[in-house]
Amino acid sequence: MVYTDPNGAIKGAEEKPSSTGGTYLQWATNNHVMRKPIPGNSNWTDTEIIASNLTGADWHTMRQIGGANYIANGSKIALAGYDDSYTTEALDLIPGNIAKTIIERNGRAVIGTVKAWDLTRGVNGAIDTEVPLVQIGNDGELFYTNFTDSMPIKRFPGGGKVNPGGVANQVDQVNIFDWEFGADSWIDKQTMGNMSLWGVWDSDVDADATRNGVYTYGRKNKEQSITMNLEYALDVDEIGAVIQTEGLTLISYKDGSDFGVKVVDLTTKATGTYESLEFRVPVKKPEGLTIWTVVEIFMEPLLVGTSILYFYKMDHASTWTQAYTADGNASYATTNGKKATFRIGEQGDVFEQKIVLNPSGNTSPIILRSRAYFQ
Description:
The protein is mainly β. It has strands spanning 12-17, 23-28, 33-37, 48-51, 62-65, 68-73, 76-80, 86-92, 97-105, 108-115, 118-128, 132-136, 141-144, 152-155, 167-169, 174-178, 188-192, 196-200, 213-218, 227-233, 238-245, 248-255, 258-263, 272-275, 279-280, 291-299, 307-314, 321-325, 339-347, 350-358, 367-374.
């Protein structure tokens, strides 16, 4: 702990350049806007108050746009200018809307709001990647923010929500600019990115594993499909901020009365879990019952110390059932093995599968194909 703000909890923060040539860290409490030179004094004795007239709000999200710092200020947007000027009412929003998120798009501010009479309805977090996205409400729904489409495009499997700072791009942000001769400033700016990172919390409770964590949504190559994945499952109560910097993902969290920051370890694999969609048995003779017999898992040669486990659900069962290998083992761990066979022998019409990959250090099983047999 280096510095504790005497004005209370910090509800937004951002780095901001100044026309004087310096750079500041700015942050907001309930009513105050503060700043500190970067790097400045190591003991933080050089902090100063910019303003003390912010409207009290749950969030004072900040975003640097065109050198200025835009600040969510209840039903208004405050602004700390590049010339170090300040106004608490740079923009007055449509009545009934409370500013919660701010992103920059083509040199403009795009503001996500919640309803003043119901703070659970509205935009929780936003990001521009290959496509512009927002997360709305408490049930994990993602929407396009291209100001054209209005239907949700995806939902986090366990529902949940994100915080305004809990959204980032998986690549370090790279910006390209367009300049028009004779203009006073850059007329256009585009941020390049691919996979979006979402720090999702307050998800549905699952009997087998947490649904909270950092999800990815997007693709890394044009030829690939846009997909969603729970990249880092985190058994915590809340995820605050997600930041990608210097190739590392930093995640702030709350777990009970504990607070901290996690970092992704690029030298150690976590246990991987694949869960399939539902497979429904095709039409067949009406008198024939469907019996699922065995499942074959094809893989690259299994590395020393790694193993795989197989689970299934039949007809929307509430819990997963573990299948055992043909030898009666709970896991398949044969070094250099390329095919594992798991026995099922159960009747059902709707089939789901889960494959668990147990790593060793920074190596993990690589599955090529799963094939289920039924009759």
